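Usage

Read records sequentially. Each one opens with the input sequence:
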Amino acid sequence: YQWNSDLKRKRIRTETTSGSLSSAAKFQAVLATASMSELELGEYLRKNAITRQDLDTWRAACERANDQKEVADAGYRSQLASERAHVRSLERELNRKEKALAEAAALLVLTKKAEAIWREHGEG
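and closes with the structure output:
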């Protein structure tokens, strides 16, 4: 495969190589080559200026495509659990502060009543 070694040595990429192909075009290349024999595959790769390594990389990416969803779901579940824990801690803190505020309000009311009672006894 002289063309392949030349391509690697010079690192020259044509317009149809992996750097400029869209994701859909890469997927189409994987689909088109899935049932090809080695001879047909070699011809296809030369015709489209695609290296076997690129095609193998694309095939592996296609095979892992659905795995990414599971990883994303696990990450989402983990983030959701941490958010729920954060909400619970905020709710506990809010309850504690509401109780402290209610206690302070009750003490204020009792203090005002006590002052009113002492004034009445002091005047009388």
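Summary fields computed downstream for this record:
- The chain has four helices and no strands.
- Confidence is low (pLDDT under 50) at residues 12-16.
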